[in-house]
């Protein structure tokens, strides 16, 4: 009887496995793959979160030092971009605290470097100058946002992450994301309005 039950159990298990096959294991990306595919995202994020160009490259490389240590533990429970931004935001916050303790005057980010990873091809001199000016203006407007609101705004409006992805990356609840995003959009619109009024007054 025992052997019959054993055979029946084995048959049932085999049938279940056939009906519900085990999902193939997701291959973890290699460090080289992550670096090649996402360096531009990390670079943009560091700059858009307010790190000046003089420090941006060092901080981006620091991000990938952390990635190199942790990539073996990445299990794919969140998108790679969300996982990466969690590392970025942690290092950027540490950088902000460090810089606030140093009463030094920081130069504005050089836009020629700031968006170099975004260019599919080299534009003409006039197009390049216009793009550089637009990027410079964007960063100046972002500088007017509070840090917490800026973080959410960059992810939602510039990187197009969803609210749940942002909540995971920033380790906050969903309602906090929505609240900060509303405030960030309002503050950004006010900053744009002030900039337009200033430009109209200067250029008549």
Descriptive keywords:
204 residues, mainly alpha, Arc Repressor Mutant, subunit A, 2 domains, 9 helices, 72% helix, globular
Structure description:
With 204 residues, the chain is mostly helical. It has two domains: 26-109, RNA polymerase sigma factor, region 2, helix turn helix motif (Rna Polymerase Sigma Factor, Chain: A); 121-204, Winged helix-like DNA-binding domain superfamily/Winged helix DNA-binding domain (Arc Repressor Mutant, subunit A), CATH 1.10.10. The chain is 72% helix and 0% strand. The chain is built from nine helices and no strands. It starts with a helix and ends with a helix. Mean pLDDT is 79; it is low at 2-18, 20-24 and 105-121.
Structural class: mainly alpha
User: Largest sheet at a glance?
Assistant: none
How many separate structural domains? 2
Q: Say which CATH homologous superfamily of the largest domain is assigned.
A: RNA polymerase sigma factor, region 2, helix turn helix motif
Q: How helical, in percent, are the residues?
A: over 70%
Shape: globular
Tell me the radius of gyration. 24 Å
Under the CATH scheme, which class of the largest domain? Mainly Alpha
Tell me the total number of β-strands. Answer: 0
The CATH architecture category of the largest domain equals: Orthogonal Bundle
Our count of helices gives: 9
Q: Mean of the pLDDT scores?
A: 79
Oligomer: single chain
Termini separation (Å)? 98 Å
């Amino acid at each position: 009887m025992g052997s019959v039950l054993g055979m029946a159990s084995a048959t049932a298990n085999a049938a279940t496995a056939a009906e519900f096959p085990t999902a193939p294991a997701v291959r973890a990306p290699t460090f080289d793959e992550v670096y090649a595919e996402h360096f531009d995202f990390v670079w943009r994020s560091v700059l858009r979160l307010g790190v000046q160009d003089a420090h941006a490259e060092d901080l981006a490389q620091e991000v990938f030092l952390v990635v190199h240590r942790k990539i073996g533990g990445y299990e794919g429970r969140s998108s790679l971009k969300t996982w990466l931004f969690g590392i970025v935001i942690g290092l950027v916050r540490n950088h902000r605290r460090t810089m606030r303790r140093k009463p030094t005057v920081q130069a504005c980010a050089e836009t020629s470097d700031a968006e170099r990873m975004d260019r599919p091809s080299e534009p003409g001199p006039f197009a390049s100058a216009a793009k550089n000016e637009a990027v410079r203006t964007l960063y100046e407007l972002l500088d007017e946002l509070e840090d917490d609101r800026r973080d959410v705004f960059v992810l939602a409006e510039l990187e197009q992450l969803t609210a749940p992805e942002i909540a995971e990356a920033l380790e906050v609840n969903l309602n906090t994301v929505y609240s900060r995003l509303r405030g960030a959009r309002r503050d950004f619109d006010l900053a744009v309005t002030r900039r337009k009024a200033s430009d109209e007054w200067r250029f008549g």
